[in-house]
Specification:
It is a single chain. 9% of the residues lie in helices and 50% in strands. The chain has six helices and 35 strands. It has an 18-stranded mixed beta sheet that branches. Strands 1, 2, 3, 4, 5, 8, 9, 10, 11, 12, 13, 15 and 16 form a 13-stranded mixed beta sheet that branches. A two-stranded antiparallel sheet has the order 6-7. The protein is globular, with a radius of gyration of 28 Å.
Length: 680
């Protein structure tokens, strides 16, 4: 048995030549692609590499992404870690055996994976691409196959210098797009060794007709090869992301399967008996083994070790890349026309100014383009107002432009303090409504551009009219407090926002936040600026979470753009929204650790979880610059609060208790974890 030379991972050192104006099917591009196609065919008959044996170590994650615009990073629902023995023999026989498999559930789920999600791609898919055992994608021609040469357009991109164990190698980008987007084909980028025309890297997605499962939104794949014995480019690293959504309803909830694999330890040209390849292509363990003691580290620690590569947002960058190649053509596999709802509360909610409010929406894509129309309507049964919005958006690569006109009733505050579903229940049954509402008429034009996988820049401008609304509903018990007069008239407004999203799952340090500047002219001229951030640090098995929010406005700040803090959601233990005006500062430091608790079964695939998160916290806030006529005013200095939070049922339920350290006030809140408010 001969050891394979250890290959250095492909490291991009710099661009040798800049990308010229894109020219499809230029002679140089077609010549290189034909060489690469011929090289793949020759490799099948090349007797110098007859077989190999290697080991693959991988993680398969099931993630849930929720919230308006699906802009927040996904949450981990389930994680599987696998060890797989891989065998390959020329020309195209392969076998994989799962030797180790463990999993952990972080939210209730009964997800089952296709068997090929639990292994690697051994031959860059061969001449046709199949995913999900043919249930998700079947028999799509590879761009470097004989059939692919007549199905795709090709364009040369940059030349890249890379470093391998054999020295420097020049790799050429080749962008690939279908000649007909009505066929099941791929869109992406090939990276070819200029000297040998071998495939080094392949990043791609698919056209909508390729998706056989009608709930598939898209599939993104990255295959990385490394050079062994100075001549064989063999699998080194692979990632796949499969995103699903409901086909009939555009709803801010997405399920994601994300696989990440590293392959190393090749033994080349080893004898492999015919019997080894009998049976299914991926054999071995049929299910996870929770009691397996052969793993070197706990699963949580292993997840932390791969968090950085998993959270590189590389798949987001890949989607931008393929969308740019596809131009204005839509690549989503979902139907072009669906019903739509931004959250459960868009369908039905209760507040004191509208009463029971019913609504629905829709989304329609124009042909195969990335132009979308999103109309929505809602009706309040107590105030008898008809609300609605029409939004038209168009996407190109990482940029989206939009036009919108809306009439809506909204809480004035930037800081959400309660989940919408809990607020509806509390308002209807007990007269406790935690919103302060304003009627808005808006007409806006905007653009949003992704600067990187985590950072986006947004700008919008238009006209906004605000009107005061009064209490119109009656609760089942108790009574509603008055709604403050927040109407301010008509303003021309311009807003600029810079946002950095969370780093994702299992990170040990993470900074996310948003900076926003807004200017308005109307009855008064004003400037308003806000900054908010969240800093997470892992200390051993504990977490330290710091949150901060700063807001300030000039003297002409209208009432509906003012700030308010206190009580639920901000300073538990202080009176609700007692402090506010044109300036506000709020900060909280929370120390989080887990304690074991009995797990209560909830059916065949869920339980309440074996741990409870305990989080003592300190918070403080201050506000000034009161505005006449509003119920919130100066805080008279800093208002400190000490409290304790408990998160239970796999962190879905959060209970907070706090004491105001200046006046001794006490408060308790029970709600769904804030991570899920965007869905509710």
């Amino acid at each position: 048995m001969r050891s394979a030379a250890r290959a250095a991972w492909v490291l991009f050192l710099g661009h040798v030549s800049p990308l010229a104006a894109q020219t499809w099917n230029a002679p140089a591009a077609l010549t290189l692609v034909r060489r690469a196609t011929e090289r793949r065919l020759e490799a099948q008959a090349d007797g110098s590499l007859s077989s190999y044996r290697t080991q693959a170590h991988g993680f398969v994650f099931f993630l849930a992404q929720v919230g308006e615009g699906l802009a927040e990073p996904p949450r981990l629902v389930k994680a599987d870690e696998l060890r797989v023995e891989v065998y390959w023999r020329a020309p195209d026989r392969s076998k994989q055996v799962i030797l180790g498999w463990r999993d952990g559930a972080f939210l209730p789920t009964d997800i089952n994976y296709h068997r090929d999600h639990l292994g690697i791609v051994t031959n860059n898919f061969g001449n046709v691409i199949r995913i999900g055992e043919g249930d998700e994608v079947r028999d799509v021609p590879h761009p470097l196959s004989p059939a692919g040469l007549t199905a795709y357009d090709y364009a040369l991109g940059d030349s890249l210098a890379i470093r391998t164990a054999a020295g420097r190698t020049v790799v050429r980008e080749v962008q690939v797009r279908p000649r007909s987007f009505a066929r099941p084909l791929v869109v992406g980028t090939l990276y070819l060794d200029v000297a040998t025309a071998q495939l080094v890297r392949f990043r791609f997605s698919f056209t909508p007709p390729a998706y056989l499962d009608k709930q598939l939104e898209d599939i993104s794949i990255v295959l990385e090869n490394a050079l062994y014995e100075q001549r064989y480019w063999l699998p080194y690293r692979q990632e796949v992301e499969i995103r699903r959504r409901t086909r009939w309803l555009d709803f801010p909830a997405r399920g994601i399967i994300r696989g990440r694999w590293e392959i190393e330890g090749y033994d080349l040209n080893v004898p492999l008996p015919d019997g080894l390849f009998a049976g299914p292509a991926i054999g071995g363990l049929a299910r996870p083994r929770p009691a397996d003691s052969t793993w070197n580290t706990p699963l949580a620690e292993a997840l932390a070790g791969v968090a950085s590569p998993v959270n590189k947002q590389d798949m987001d960058a890949l989607r931008v890349e393929v969308e740019r190649i596809a131009g204005a053509r839509a690549l989503s596999g979902l139907p072009s026309r669906r019903l739509a709802a931004g959250s459960l509360s868009d369908l039905v909610h209760v507040n004191r100014v509208q009463g029971l409010t019913l609504g629905f929406g829709a989304v329609a894509r124009l042909g195969a383009s990335r132009v979308q129309l999103r109309p929505s309507v809602a009706y309040g049964t107590s105030d008898h107002r008809l609300m609605g919005e029409l939004r038209v958006s168009a996407g190109l690569g990482g940029t989206e432009v939009s036009l919108s006109a809306a009439r809506r009733v909204a809480d004035f505050s930037d800081l959400p303090v309660v989940s919408p579903v809990v607020n509806s229940l509390a308002a209807q049954e007990g007269g406790a409504d935690y919103g302060d509402y304003v009627l808005l008429h808006t007409a806006l034009a905007g653009a949003r551009h992704r600067l990187s996988g985590r950072t986006t820049l947004a700008i919008s401008a238009g006209v906004e009219e605000s009107r005061s609304v009064a209490v119109r509903a009656t609760p089942a018990t108790g009574s509603y407090r008055p709604n403050p007069a927040l109407g301010s008239g008509s303003y021309g407004v311009t807003r600029i926002e810079l946002e950095r999203a969370s780093g994702g799952i299992a990170v040990r340090q993470d900074l996310q936040g948003r900076l926003a500047v807004e200017g308005g002219n109307g009855p008064t001229d004003y400037v308003r600026a806000t900054a908010e951030g969240r800093w997470l640090t892992v200390l051993g098995s504990h977490q330290l979470v710091t949150r901060a929010y700063l807001g300030a406005g000039t003297g002409g700040l209208p009432p509906h753009r003012s700030f308010a803090i206190g009580g639920r959601g901000t300073l538990v233990g202080e009176p609700f929204r007692a402090y506010g005006g044109r300036e506000v500062a709020l900060a909280q430091v929370e120390w989080r650790f887990e304690l074991p608790v009995p797990a209560l079964p909830l059916g065949s695939f869920a339980s309440t979880g074996r741990t409870m998160t305990v989080a003592p916290f300190l918070a403080a806030g201050a506000a000034g610059g009161p505005i006449d006529g509003l119920p919130w005013g100066r805080s008279d200095g800093v208002r400190p609060v000490a409290g304790l939070a408990l998160e239970w049922f796999m962190r879905l339920i959060r209970v907070e208790a706090g004491v105001g350290l200046r006046d001794g006030g006490f408060g308790v809140t029970v709600d769904v974890n804030r991570d899920w408010w965007g869905l509710l």
